[in-house]
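Holo prediction. Input below; ligand is adenosine-5'-triphosphate.
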Amino acid sequence: MPSSPSSSPTSKSEAPPPAAAGTADLVIRVRGLVTRFGRQTVHDGVDLDVRRGEVMGIVGGSGTGKSVLLKEIIGLMRATAGRVEVLGVDMLAADSATRRAVQGRWGVLFQDGALFSSMTVAENVMVALKEHTRLDPCLIQELARIKISMVGLPPDSCAKYPSQLSGGMRKRAGLARALALDPEILFLDEPTAGLDPIGAAAFDELIGTLQRSLGLTVVMVTHDLDSLYAICDRIAVLVDRKIKVGTIDMLLADPHPWIHDYFHGPRGRAAAVKR
Ligand SMILES: Nc1ncnc2c1ncn2[C@@H]1O[C@H](COP(=O)(O)OP(=O)(O)OP(=O)(O)O)[C@@H](O)[C@H]1O
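Structure of the complex:
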C-alpha cells in the first residue's frame, strides 16, 4: 500500500474508457429512478450504470439532484420510485442485515469530511473498524495509522482534532476514514470544494493514485472541471431530470445546450487546455 501517493495523475480524458461491461461487472445499477418533493420532480426516470474499477463523475446545474442521487444510492434517502442495485443487492428491497453488509463495502467522503469533532483523527478512522470488525485494539490502531499515512497526512495528525487541521487536511482525514474498511466503492461529494487550485489538484492526484493502486470504483459528485479531466473515466450529467452518460470526448460533442455550455464555456476550455 502506498504511504504517500506521489505518482503524477494520468489524464483520464486521454485514456480509453474501461471496456463496456456486462451486468456482472456493474457495481451500481440504477433504473427508472423518480424523486419528488411535493410538486417538485427532481429525477424523472434516471438510469445509471457504474462499472467495476471506473471513476464516474456526476455533474449538473445547481439543484438538478446530484447530492440527492448520491444519498439515494447510499440509502440516506429513499427515492419515490425506481430501483437501486449496489454490488448486486436491490437496496430498496433488501433486509437491514443485507443492506448493512453492503454498506460495509463502500466508503463515503462528505464535503467537509464529516468528522466527529470530539475525536482525534485516529479515533475517527477507528470508529468503523470498531463497529464492523472484531480485530484486536492494537491492530485497529495500527490500521488507522496506515490509512492516515495512505492519504498523505503526517504521523502527528493521528492525535490531532479536526479543528486543528486545515480544510485540505480535514478532507484527507475524512478520506482515511472512508477507506477504513478497505471499501470496493468510494463515494465522494464535491471532494475538491473549498480547496485552492493547488490543493484541489493534489487531492485529485491522491484520489487517482488510490483508485489505481486499490482498484476502487469511485463515484464523485463534482463541479470541478479539472477533476473531471484528471480522474474521471465517464461522466453522468443530470439534465432535464434524467441522466446522460459519456466520456469527456462524447460530451464535448453533445449538442444539449447545458452540456455544450458547461464543457465549452470559459472554465471548460481552460480545463481542456490542461489535458
Ligand atoms: N429533503 C429535501 N426535501 C425537499 N427538497 C429537497 C430535499 N433535498 C433536496 N431537495 C431539493 O431537491 C433539489 C436537488 O437537490 P440537490 O441537493 O440534490 O441538488 P444538487 O444538484 O446537489 O445542487 P448543488 O449543485 O447546488 O449542490 C433541490 O431543489 C433541493 O431543494
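Confidence is low (pLDDT under 50) at residues 1-10. That is the main takeaway for now.
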